[in-house]
Amino acid sequence: MRRPIYLDYNATTPVDPRVLERMLPYFTERFGNPASKGHTYGLEAEAAVEVAREQVAALLNAEPESLIFTSGATEALNLAIKGVAEASRHRGQHIVTVQTEHAAVLEACRALARRGWEVTYLPVDAQGRLDPDALEAALTPRTVLAAIMWANNETGVLHPIAEIARRTQAHGVPLLVDATQAVGKIPVTVEGIDLLACSAHKFYGPKGVGVLYARRRPPLRLVPLLDGGGHEQGLRSGTLNVPAIVGMGAAAELAAREMPGEGARLQALRDRLEQELQRALPDVRINGAQAPRLPQTSSVTIPGVRADRLLTTVRTLALSAGSACGSGRGKPSHVLRAMGLSEADARCTIRISLGRFTTDEEINTAIERLISTIRQLRRQQRPIATAAR
Fold it and tell me: Residues with catalytic annotation?
């Protein structure tokens, strides 16, 4: 049976074969624990981890020593938010974030709110953009952290991180950036940023590994989430997942090399898909189209056609109704609702995200099948005329 065309790269990416090749020896003959420094097996595992740390650091324009390996972006974000909150509670208990953040940020903030922290959730405009003036106005002497994503996982809309960092620095408030969707797709730098999280499986590395960048000068104090052997500078105890870390490093190295050409190719495919859909179906809307966006992400509202119905009908395409972490909950997207979409329109929105292995032929097929399926569903919903009595 032929598998569907995969157009859900923002949910996860396949491991690049070149990445897998680098990982395989660390499952078998190079299986050592990097904490075992008394013999060759442990030392070669430790060396592989440090090479990967340097590779990821190069992609982020960061110092290798500032990176903490985690199980993924969710753990990294929780460590950053809760770690800073606990370490800074003597100074204040106020956090500023945005209504369109990923659930990993929003739920971590809600957990702190239940324990007495005050959280300000900033709005966005109709294009999904945050106003830096609104952010600055929300900062107070009690604010201990601002948590702002680089690229939205549903719409691809980019926040002006350099300007946001300038505002938070001026007020002495640490800035946490969730760069999970941005890393590997657009240039990302930690310059001006205090904390940054990302995950390997979003840029053709394995699942189960991520990184938290934490500023070293001046040092930023974090309270660890896990107690144990004091791995990763005492901030993330637990035996390191060496094969996955090696894979993340290899994926970062490939992304740094191939990102410019890949971004241009995918943006051309994305733009053609959007244009053809709107040409054939003039009422289709692209969310965030007037804002800077990731080159390969499209949030498409199809009035009158529910996303769940479309996804179950067009089985030859693997699409999403929004964030993979939020699918199956039955609630309309909080991102789209924050942008001003009605509940009905939010439920009629799909996310199309392209990637390294998306071809011209696949986009041609996707355009044809989406248009024909949408037209079919609309015909089925028209009331059937009855003869006059």
Answer: 325
